[in-house]
Design goal:
This protein has 1 helix and 5 strands, in the order E-H-E-E-E-E. It has a single domain (4-46), classed as Hypothetical protein (Metal Transport, Frataxin, Chain A). The protein has one helix at 6-15, and strands at 4-5, 18-24, 27-32, 38-42, 48-49. A 3-stranded antiparallel β-sheet has the order 2-3-4, covered by helices on one side. A two-stranded antiparallel ribbon has the order 1-5.
């Protein structure tokens, strides 16, 4: 998987059914219907994250 910014990751998750439920500072908190997990995605200007974040 390629490196991507927080904004790119948020957009990818939105296309896969995740919804931003709130934004706390620079973190987008996301949930998906029928999924008990909550994701916190750091969205920092132009900072890319490597594949380790996705694990």
């Amino acid at each position: 998987m390629k490196n991507m910014t927080g904004t790119e990751l948020v957009n990818l998750l939105k296309r896969n059914g995740w919804v931003v439920v709130r934004i706390e500072g620079s973190h987008h908190i996301m949930k998906k219907e029928n999924n008990p997990n909550t994701l916190s995605i750091p969205v920092h200007k132009d900072k890319t994250f490597n594949s380790g974040l996705f694990r």
